[in-house]
Design goal:
alpha/beta
Length: 512
């Protein structure tokens, strides 16, 4: 079957966070917007039914130090937070902390989600903190390069510690109030690290799709994409990944062969190609459309792997005759532009640089410049295609991604390996020495490669949940009838762990 108009909310809601091009980040923003809208509808249905009446949510601002580690600096910035008291059993009920990541926080983050369902069950106080330098939590001119040094995961953890103290003072909490942290994606890593660095504050942590291992050359991202496109259980096939590879090989051959103008015309690019960098921008955008489908497979409002493979293997009812894989990729871009309402596809490296260098108010909220800075200074996560397992183009090199660190922020490329190595040394990399942290990952999510997917020693043997056939942060959403059985079972397992932690904490309090 081909894609109906209703299903063409497709590629607009795909990838979570990454260090790729403009198209991928636009898609990421639409993911957040779609999930936000879905959560609002969920909250409204519950309010109308009387199950969860609203009226207990508060928004606040905490003025945080710009630098927690230099007592000589007195500058602060406003950090947004939300509190939901609706389910809290005063005064000793637990506290569930939702951690914000590389994007804006919203009221619905304490009103909807699996963590909210568990808060209702355990009579917990719900609190959420927006990440520094994202959303509304940024000081004036904070995105100028000279000010970005105050943006780091270490500062973010210190923000959370200060927030813990603020909430404890505001609600007169004591050691009887057990704190559990929750986060997904980068915020999932923060949830794990917060528990690891401050175990006296956070009793247990759920880390969903959390890339706790920093990695400069994240080539295995696209390896998982290729394997998922072959997975018959989620609608993939050997022919699907073969045809994707064939389509990209044809694009690359046309570009190398001097047919740039025809390629630009076929994919309706906004500008004429002027350089190799422009060609890389185009190929990066094409790869993002497919990789994003894999990462968010079966999330409502997205194209599934099955639908993508139907299109790319020429199985659609729309096609009356065989067409080349290259032309099917062209059709995929046509669908994307139709959904986004784009007259053409941006593929200019110069325009890309202009966007990433922009520090004006109209781009602050997007978070793209901030995240690229963190990628250069802490994490890497550059999704390359130089490995033979990648189904895309070998033009997607590590050099092409990392040279932006110098161009945007003046960070020499030779410093990047050291930055990544320090992050892994500081947090533990792929073997974090954390106890009472639950790492939850989906099989289809390429980010599971940088998380913890196996259980530890006898002291912490139940720390990983690996969900077959599911995608990025799928466990964090409220349960739906269409969910896979593996996803329902995973949520039940998360609930079991949280319940055990709370009982254990209560027992420890009684024994003091």
């Amino acid at each position: 079957m081909y894609l109906s108009t209703g299903r063409l909310t497709i590629l607009i809601v795909l990838l979570s966070y990454a260090c790729a091009g403009r198209v991928l980040w636009q898609i990421k923003e639409r993911v957040r917007a779609a999930r936000h809208q879905k959560a609002k509808q969920y909250v409204m249905r519950n309010a109308l039914s009387g199950r969860r009446p609203r009226g207990h949510t508060k928004e606040g601002v905490l003025h945080q130090p710009l630098d927690h580690f230099d007592s000589n600096r007195e500058e602060t910035f406003p950090q947004k937070f939300f509190v939901n008291e609706q389910y809290w059993d005063r005064p000793d009920g637990p506290v569930f902390l939702y951690i914000g990541g590389e994007g804006p926080l919203s009221e619905v983050d304490v009103l909807a989600g699996h963590h909210v369902d568990m808060a209702e069950e355990h009579s917990a106080l719900l609190v959420a903190l927006e990440h520094r330098f994202y959303g509304d939590s940024i000081n004036p001119e904070g995105l100028e390069t000279e000010n970005l040094s105050d943006l780091s995961s270490q500062q973010a953890l210190a923000d959370l510690v200060t927030f813990h103290r603020h909430i404890s003072d505001r609600y007169r909490l004591s050691d009887k109030n057990t704190w559990i942290s929750f986060g997904g994606s980068y915020a999932g890593a923060l949830s794990a690290w917060l528990r690891g660095k401050f175990p006296h504050l956070i009793y247990g942590a759920v880390a969903s799709s959390a890339p706790v291992q920093a990695k400069l050359d994240f080539s295995t991202f696209n390896k998982v994409v290729g394997l998922s496109l072959m997975d018959k259980e989620v609608g993939g096939s050997d022919k699907c990944v073969s045809d994707v590879w064939e389509a990209f090989a044809a694009v690359e051959a046309a570009l190398i062969g001097g047919n740039e103008s025809q390629v630009w015309k076929d994919f309706s690019c906004c500008e004429d190609p002027n350089s190799l960098e422009d060609q890389i921008e185009l190929i990066s955008s094409l790869a993002d459309l497919i990789a994003g489908t894999v990462e968010y497979n079966e999330i409502e409002g997205t194209m599934s792997i099955e639908e993508l493979c139907t299109l790319m293997t020429n199985q659609s009812e729309t096609y009356e005759e065989e067409i080349e894989a290259y032309d099917r990729l062209v059709k995929l871009v046509e669908v994307y532009r139709e959904v986004e309402g784009l007259p053409c596809l941006l593929a200019s490296h110069e325009h890309e640089l202009e966007e990433l260098m922009n520090t004006s108010d109209d781009v602050v909220a997007s978070g793209r410049r901030q995240w690229y800075y963190q990628s250069c200074t802490e994490f890497g996560f550059f999704q390359t295609c130089e490995d033979a397992s990648c189904p895309f183009s070998r033009l997607l090199t590590l050099r092409a991604a990392t040279e932006l660190c110098t161009q945007l922020f003046g960070i020499p490329e030779e410093k990047l390996p050291g930055n990544v190595a320090f992050t892994n040394m500081y947090y533990g990399g792929d073997d974090p020495q954390t106890h009472r942290v639950l790492y939850v990952n989906g099989e289809i999510d390429p980010w599971h490669e940088l998380s913890v997917t196996s259980n530890g020693n006898w002291m912490d043997k139940d720390r990983a949940i690996y969900i077959k056939g599911t995608s990025h942060c799928a466990d964090m959403e409220p349960e739906e009838k269409a969910d896979r059985e593996s996803l329902r079972e995973a949520r039940e397992e998360i609930e079991r762990h949280v319940a055990i932690w709370l009982k254990s904490a209560a027992w420890e309090i009684m024994m003091r």
